[in-house]
């Protein structure tokens, strides 16, 4: 993850906080801020004690609790990077796309998301009955990233002397984003879509035939759609 000293980075499921420490050290000399969020109040309490000094004195580390990753307590477009390790295995598949949508929302255009895995370790956990292989199948996660708006979705195979072989799922939010570049166009598109939905609802209720003008209106391209 190309973390610079001025980046805002979020770790999902920080556990003991080892990765938080690494990121904090990277941004300590800049204007960056490290955020961590965890479902477990116990892990949050442990991390708050571990990083009490950094939180109190630097203002560059913030720890939050979120029982539902579909509703993160952050504004849209705030993070340069989001990363997590051993997290998506515990997200129900029917919720995965909504979680990916939420990650997309809080990332800045051009921001990246990364997920670390170790297949060898996960295979052992499956053999011991701790995890089902279907839980850590990377396609469970990767298949939801692109529908959520991410691009460049891929899995990289890496190795180093400390951790051995490991895998990284990577994706990024597109740098070009109409919601950030042209909010007026986005609002016009939303208004047109609402008008169409209201017209369809009225027609279904009245059961009358469409006029030529109404047909042309319903066939009209939404702003920006014809360029895709």
SS class: alpha/beta
Biggest sheet overview:
7 strands, mixed
> For this structure, what is the CATH homologous superfamily of the largest domain?
Vaccinia Virus protein VP39
List the domain count as a whole number.
2
The CATH architecture of the largest domain is: 3-Layer(aba) Sandwich
- Give the averaged pLDDT, no decimals: 85
- As residue ranges, the low-confidence spans are 222-228
Alpha carbon gap, first and last residue: 30 Å
Spatial order of the strands forming the largest sheet: 3-2-1-4-5-7-6
How would you describe this structure to a colleague?
It comes from Ancylostoma ceylanicum. This is Methyltransferase domain-containing protein. The chain has 228 residues and is an alpha/beta fold. The protein folds into two domains: 170 residues, Vaccinia Virus protein VP39 (Rossmann fold); 40 residues. It has nine helices and seven strands; from the N terminus they run E-H-E-H-H-E-E-H-E-H-H-E-E-H-H-H. A seven-stranded mixed beta sheet has the order 3-2-1-4-5-7-6, with helices on both faces. Helix 4 links the parallel strand 4 and strand 5. Helix 4 packs across helix 6. It is globular, with a radius of gyration of 22 Å. The two termini are 30 Å apart. The C terminus is likely disordered.
